[in-house]
Design a protein that fits this description.
This protein has three helices and five strands, in the order βαβααβββ. With about 90 residues, the protein is of the alpha+beta class. The chain has one domain: Beta-grasp domain (Ubiquitin-like (UB roll), Roll). A hairpin with a 2-residue loop joins β3 and β4. The longest helix has 11 residues. The chain is globular, with a radius of gyration of 12 Å. The N and C termini lie far apart (about 40 Å).
Length: about 90
């Protein structure tokens, strides 16, 4: 399955400036693995040492938060869009 992964500017820097990346996989986790394999500097910003979604990064699959589905086990289909939003601290 081919999905589009949309990255904010702070993460796009780690993906050679790409704001959107096409990825393959039957699940969101497989698509993230595909992207992490091509952009190794981006990998630790997307998943923790166990391969789970990083705690301070929210993944939306077609505008739905994956935490309320099956996390990285969520099935993806051709044409789906994933938007990644890292937590931003400030005050």
């Amino acid at each position: 399955m081919s999905v589009t992964i949309n990255l904010p500017a702070v993460l796009a820097k780690l993906a050679d400036g790409h704001g959107a990346i096409e990825a393959d996989g039957a699940t969101l986790g497989a698509a993230i693995d595909d992207v992490a394999g091509r952009f190794p500097r981006l990998a630790p910003r997307l998943r923790d040492e166990n391969g789970d979604p990083y705690a301070f990064v929210t993944f939306y699959l077609n505008d739905e938060d994956i935490r309320f589905n099956d996390g990285f086990g969520t099935t993806v289909r051709d044409g789906d869009e994933v938007t990644i939003v890292p937590a931003i601290a400030g005050g």
